Amino acid sequence: MKQKLYHGSKGQSIVELTLLTPLLLAALYIPADFGIAFYTAHLVQNATREAARIGASMNPFDHTTVENEATKRLPTGRFANPSVTASLDSGNPTCMRRVLVTVSGTYSPFLYQLINLVVPGANVSNTISITRSTAMRFDSQPLTNTGTC
Fold first, then answer.
1. β-sheet bridge partners, residue 128
2. Burial of residue 121 (number of CB atoms within 10 Å: 0-12, 13-18, 19+)
3. HEC string for the chain
4. Number of neighbouring beta carbons within 10 Å of residue 31
5. What is the pLDDT of residues 35-94, one digit of tens each?
6. Are the beta carbons of 58 and 136 closer than 8 angstroms?
7. How far apart are CA 103 and CA 93, in angstroms?
8. Chain segment 123-132, per-residue pLDDT in tens
9. CA separation (Å) from 90 to 3, 67, 81?
10. Sign of dihedral through CA atoms 13, 17, 19, 23?
11. Omega into 109 within 30° of 0, i.e. cis?
12. pTM for this structure?
């Protein structure tokens, strides 16, 4: 038996596909974009950890070298405006001293930029702030305390 086609329904499937495709792509891209942001934050944390390890084993401590090592390990791409600081706390030299490395910057999700371009008047923030720090015991100090801390 031959199916009857109605004159008004020939392009209905194309119209439905055209209307739903952007919504489906956005629904699939949102988790991927936030996953990339999470992965970028993870890489920033690894960079601070590696730089703190390097700084903890230095004798004498040089904050410029530690900051450069952290900068070399930062992810490239959407992680922008990185700010790296490294310091050795200035406590009693016979007590537990720590190396502290802090990295902060911004991540720019592509979807937010796309929303600002496509939707007129949309005021969506197009950056996510990422800040990570690591503190490690400074190795070049006495193993026992010789005085009060």
1. 107
2. exposed
3. CCCCCCHHHCCHHHHHHHHHHHHHHHHHHHHHHHHHHHHHHHHHHHHHHHHHHHHHCCCCCCHHHHHHHHHHHCCCCCEEEEEEEEEECCCCCCCCCEEEEEEEEEECCHHHHHHHHHCCCCCCCCCEEEEEEEEEECCCCCCCCCCCC
4. 9
5. 888 999 999 999 999 999 999 999 888 999 999 999 999 998 888 899 999 999 876 666
6. no
7. 26
8. 777 788 999 9
9. 85, 18, 28
10. positive
11. no
12. 0.75
Q: How many CB atoms lie within 10 A of CB 3?
A: 4
**Quick count: other Cβ atoms within 10 Å of Cβ 126?**
16
Sole residue written with tokens 């199916």 = 3
One-letter amino acid identity for 16? E
